[in-house]
Amino acid sequence: MRDFAHEIEQRKQAGLYRTRRLISGPQQPALMAGGTPLLSFCSNDYLGLANHPDNIAALISALPKTGLGGAASHLVCGHHDAHHQLEQRLAAFTQRSSALFFSTGYMANMGVISALAGRGDTIFSDRLNHASIIDGCILSRARVQRYAHGDVGALESMLAETSGHKLVVTDGVFSMDGDVAPLKALARVCRAHDALLVVDDAHGIGVCGPQGRGSVLEAGLSEDEVPLLIGTLGKAVGTSGAFVAGPAVLMDYLVQKARTYIYTTAMPPALAAATCASLDLIEAGESRREHLRELIARFRAGAEQLGYELMPSQSPIQPIMIGGNQEALALSQALEQQGVLVTAIRPPTVPAGEARLRVTLSAAHTCEQLGQLLRALAQSRALLSGRASPPVAAV
Ligand SMILES: *Cc1c(COP(=O)(O)O)cnc(C)c1O
After folding, report:
1. pTM for this one?
2. Fewer beta carbons within 10 angstroms: which end of the chain, N or C?
3. How many of the other CB atoms lie within 10 Å of CB of 173?
């Protein structure tokens, strides 16, 4: 038999071993981790809605009416009023004709991509796309061509050389770099070369665009220009699940063909009700986004002043680039000793040699908490360069 234990040992040697940290209590900046209080800067709860009393109240009040379990798939007898209302709410929120509610973003990407492209077709995928997109491409059995990150010129030449059915897929806001795809240019080349554009805006929904409608609406792109808009609900929306939004004919097609939609149990309907409540908070939540933007600006100024290498990101995803796996782990551990939790992100989640600390900011963080992060980063700076860290007073 294959030596699984040996493979685990090799991962440990390479600084690639992964563990799960045990959290108790609700998700919020002040986390209880293994009985120790830690100030977290690594969740995707960008607006602080995962523990919002209005969303919790909406869930509790829906439960007696809907019961708990989903009980069946949507195509058998699981498609509940509450799911239907959420789909209408999501269509309105994204300014699309219709929407389909999936159980997770992973399943939405797998289902959408494998339903809309197959053998003989070609999928063009940004090199830094999320793992669920990569897996959706594999599952589709289509030919897959990866283009350099954000390189619309390279994509356009590939499209020009390819005939047959073409699908282009990209993250909206990239999950590990925090930058935004060149959506307008992508929409233009897709139209010019008759390719179907799919945008996964898992990290844009709730955070950017008018009233938090995401990166696609921030770029002013209509349903004609971006026919398939995917969003997840477990990040800024603070609940769980995902959706795809677009023309009714494509939603209908997905109901026929998307296996991760068809062959899975419907989510608990009460959760859909809680998600509707969360969308209300997002639409009315400009002050949350305003505070978040301020935290982002302050973090970037502070970390750059300390000599850390950041990425050109204006989103709440603010990676501190390190390079080596062990170095990234060491910095993460040094921060943890100071009560701050930022996980090290290593290959294969990011390319080899690009290990980083993925700092994520949330509207739930106070300016004082951000100061705590910057002070901890100042204290740990010497770890990376061997140089003395700049004076803490500088932040
Ligand atoms: C998190 C994420 C997903 C997966 O969504 P889940 O609902 O967590 O399964 C898909 N795409 C991107 C870009 C993501 O960051």
Report:
1. 0.95
2. N
3. 27
